[in-house]
Amino acid sequence: MEVITIGNNKGGVGKTMQCYQLACYLANKGHKVLVIDLDSQANLSSSFGIQIQRTLVPEWLIGDVGVEDVIVKPEMTGKLYKNIKIIPASRHLANLSKLLILSEGEIRKEAGRKERLLKKRLQDAKLEFDYVVIDTPPMLGDELIMALVASNRVLIPTQAQDYSIDGLEELMDTFEIIKETENPELEFSIIPSMVNPRRKIERVRMEELSQSFQTTPMIRNLVQMQESISTRRPVCIMGAKSAGRIDYDILWKSLNL
Ligand SMILES: Nc1ncnc2c1ncn2[C@@H]1O[C@H](COP(=O)(O)OP(=O)(O)O)[C@@H](O)[C@H]1O
Ligand SMILES: [Mg+2]
After folding, report:
1. How many CB atoms lie within 10 A of CB 233?
2. CA distance 127 to 67
């Protein structure tokens, strides 16, 4: 089972889009995929047609309920969705950090450190999935750190703006600490996201980015991508000539997915 986190402490860079497209792409190839939404805004859950009143994810992480109490099926029908299950989010997830502090004693006894909780729960549940794909909130908080500890790799969508690239350093510092202390196998890929290649400034920034980091092929800024989310048609089932599908096919291939 490969666990892939999509993370960036900046918002609006295309994390949730990437999670949706990746989960659907893998499912369409016939893999069994578990999607975990760790962002209390629950945008990814909505993309799969799911809106829940109150997620039990904090209770699951703490060990009060089992995984069967948090996993649901996507609302949509269709072949690829049969291969997907989802652990959705809701507003309540915003209380996670507080709840973890309240349960500190129990967590220490059981998992040692709160950072290890998600990894432990995924191991305990002995899940029969080929892939777990995790969406995370736009901050360096417990959700992202737990996801990084539990993952084999992290995909980092990054926009061409200066401030987006500056924020990367903070994220990379966290990544290095987790690699040294909890998860030496963790790998990362920086993915130029929502790029408008016709703008010179973006081309220059992308060039600079690729000098500091190894970057993957880019995902362009395309109206079609927004439509893909709103009509709930992932690009992997669009025509072979559709620009969104072409970008993502090249990206996934470069990542051996
Ligand atoms: N490649 C793209 N082209 C055009 N719009 C995109 C693209 N990727 C994401 N978007 C749109 O940009 C907005 C932010 O993307 P989102 O995935 O929600 O970012 P994040 O999860 O990082 O906050 C959303 O409205 C989304 O539909
Ligand atoms: Mg998001």
Report:
1. 15
2. 9
Residue 115 tokens, joined? 């950072």
Reference 256, options 187, 185, 207; nearest CA is 187
Pairwise CA distance, residues 58 & 145, whole Å: 15
Task: Round to whole Å and give the CA distance between 73 and 79.
Answer: 13
Of 17, 19, 164, the residue with max ligand 1 atoms within 8 A of its CB, to mutate for a pocket test, comes to 17
Please, what is the Cα angle at 220 between 232 and 139, to 5 degrees?
75
Cα(110)–Cα(108) distance, integer angstroms:
6
Residues with CB under 6 A from ligand 1: 11-17, 43, 138, 194, 219, 221-222, 225-226, 229
**pLDDT in the model for residue 165:** 73
Q: Is 14 helix (H, G, I), strand (E, B) or coil?
A: coil
Query: pLDDT tens across 191-200, in order?
Result: 999 999 899 9
Domains of the chain, CATH where assigned: 2-254 (3.40.50.300)
CA of 43 to the centre of ligand 2 (A): 6
Average pLDDT estimate for 107-120: 90
**pTM tops 0.85:** yes
